[in-house]
Amino acid sequence: MASYHAVNAVLLALENFFTERLPNELTDGPINARVELLGSSDITSPISGNVLGIYLHRLEIDAHGRARHFTPTGTSNGHRVSELPVNLHLLLIASASSATIEANLMAWAMIELANNSQLDISHLSENDSDWTEKEILTITPAEMSNEDLMRIWDVFESDYTSSVPYIGRTIRLRLQEPESIAEPVTTRVFPTGKAISSSEEAVS
């Protein structure tokens, strides 16, 4: 089960995922494209260069996963740990010096995610050591109306550039466990080695 670092770990893993696969025709020569994590403050200003941006615009608690409990790997006592299931709403943003480069960057990124839609421990453990082998994040296209998409850009008062919404399902964030209440003592062992129950002790 993941810690609170998992959200940022996913973003870093996506950045590394795209950077490692970016073809030479987009990274070499005058294009010199790069992959970059974008925060809200980055979008308020023009993005310089040829960039494939990853922007986390919303975190959402997975309503279908709220009642689930997660059994940690390696436990045999059946103890279930409470979790907070979270979905990541992302925008892929292509900003470039020409329409051709912008289209190529976005189309390439969409193909890569279609071919490799899952992130697992091999991608995420470096930035969140609590991620386990049984946890997998699936990244798929998200439904978003044109009005909602444009509203994001209007809020930042920025010029629109090519953007495609995606959703990452689901990160299971570990919650703090409630303190356990000890069961009442029913048996005591004295130095003689004889075990006496609470009821016997009361009679004596």
Structure description:
By secondary structure, the chain is of the alpha+beta class. It has a single domain (6-203), classed as 2-Layer Sandwich (STM4215-like). 30% of the residues lie in helices and 29% in strands. It contains seven helices and nine strands; from the N terminus they run ααβαβββαβαβαβββα. The strands form two sheets. Strands 1, 2, 3, 4, 5, 6 and 7 form a seven-stranded mixed beta sheet that branches. A two-stranded antiparallel ribbon has the order 8-9. The radius of gyration is 25 Å and the shape is globular. The mean pLDDT is 83.
Look up the CATH topology: STM4215-like
Low-confidence stretches: none
Considering the protein shown, what is the CATH homologous superfamily? Phage tail protein-like
Largest sheet: 7 strands, mixed
Strand content: 25-35%
Helical run tally: 7
Percent helix among the residues?
A: 25-40%
Order of helices and strands: HHEHEEEHEHEHEEEH
End-to-end Cα distance, whole Å, is: 51 Å
| Approximate shape | globular
Radius of gyration: 25 Å
Mean pLDDT: 83
Q: How many domain units?
A: 1
Organism: Aliikangiella marina
Protein name: DUF4255 domain-containing protein
Pfam families: Pvc16_N
Domain Pvc16 N-terminal: 10-186
